[in-house]
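note to self — DONT lose this again. spent like an hour looking for the file last time. sequence + predicted structure for the chain T wanted, 609 res
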Amino acid sequence: KESNGNQKYSAVHENASKALQFMESYSRAPASDYRRQVLPVVQASLETGSTRLCQQSVSIIHKIGKDNRFYSPELEEDEPSWLTFQVCAAISPLPALSSDIQTDYLQAVLSLSYHSCWIVSGQVTLHLVSLCQELSAGQAAAKAAAQNVAANTLTAFARHLCKETEDHTRKRSVDEIIPVFQYLCSRTEECYAEADKTNKRNKAEKEFLICCLDTTIKSLHKKVTESSHFCTFLWRSLCPAVIKLLVRGAGHSIVCTLTSLIGHLESHRAVLEATFHKMMVQTPPQKRLEGLRAINRLVGEKHGLMDLTWLDKRQEDEDRHPSNDMAILIMILDSLEECANVQDGFILYEVVEVIKKICENLEKFCNGENLDADKVEVINSLYDTLESSDYAGPHTYTNDEDIPEEFRFIIQDSLDAKSNSYDTSSIATTTDSTNQIEVSYDSSDDSEDSENNTSSETDATQVPESLQDDTKLWLNKVPKCLYSPYKGVSENDMKQIEIERNNAATYHKLLKNRMFRLNSIRSAIEIDQKIQEFASQFCQDFSAHSPKVKDKAEVTIMNADGIYLTTYRVIHLNVKLKKEGHYDQNQEDQFPSISEKEFVESILESGIL
């Protein structure tokens, strides 16, 4: 009614009349015909600039997603008849309107983008992204709506192409997204090349384009890398563009998103390592905060650590692109070590978080979690037994210059010897104190082969006379290879273990009896005094030095300080577990903060017992 008789609104009146007449005269027509009649009303209203008409017309966009007359489950063959194409053409005048009108229409389009009928092509995607880029410099609400519309459009296009690739209905369909990447990269380069760095619009467009790049890569399935043309575009154009962004201090999240997409490709490891090298090595440690945050998010994902280290082995890649699956992870760890020396709380926090998440992922791998069935099959085929996956070398260094002099001759000799025989290690306890432990080597006297090979093995591991005496002594104790956890136990060892077990049982019994007396004491000083008395009395009664002990062979050497420390640590651990509610849980739910092995080692490593 408002447009009737007003020359300014004559186009709106004419289009509205045609649309109303069409909808009343047809009982059922193709969905594209309904849209072709009503959407010109929206475009004409926007072109008038009338706030009232624009606010009334936005209801048409909402109606399209709710009324089944305006959409069809089948996609039209002619692209100009697609819902997305027609809607994009209708809202093209938006940049000239106020921010409130822009927000209303973008929110309507955003709601429509979640509809199953929202299928986009490369042309429609470029149109919408270009429109949203113009609107991204507006107020906060319009900026957020534009970013969301662009992200949903790019995601819908990427998933549509990946779905067609999976169904094999169209060949090389993923190549259609290359023009979108080219547009985003070129527009980003133009924004950074602009002379006026303080321009707010320029800053908003940079953020918008980088977010679009990240979203597009994240929406692609790994199967898109089966396209040779797309893979060529990745290493020739996209990765260099990302490195340019890193030079300008942006694009860190894109590097990690790229890792999830192409990390498994051995042929692309070189260019991926180059991007990480720029982000984590060439950048000064004090400026790596954003890079660390991106790495933190990556390793926090379910398959993030696997994307960094897993390579799909292909024969042609191994011949043409030999690469190291651990190179990027080693680069990250070296970078973390450098960042750990920076006096910046934010950087140190990210370093700790990354290390924590890496360890948590490794623990899950050890428990068989976060591993796909195909990867488990590959790992089991490479390593038949646990011993076959063991590390065989003395150490790994980036280059020979990093190797200390005293180690170089050992590494070289071990490589030359190529010995397949392994010594077995055992733990020998000295007769002076149970805490003096050294590594000894079982020469296997019962084996005739060991006698024949003695001279050659001695030559391969002989320590040069030029080294200092303390260095020689230490090097003689260094294992030349990793050993199996299984070793033979002699009769004397079994006897010693039985003696220690009996002494431990006696200690446990007496300490348990003493605890009933300690529970009634409220003074910390008095409790400490009672613990000292208990330690002293226990050693007088059961120590190998005690005159009360008749058979010295049935007890182990001990001292009062060691007994005091052990008692103190035992009481401390029990109080801690009680405060944590450990004893109130069911047995199957009890997971103490420290294992029995760790607790025993913490006492033995004190050097007192």
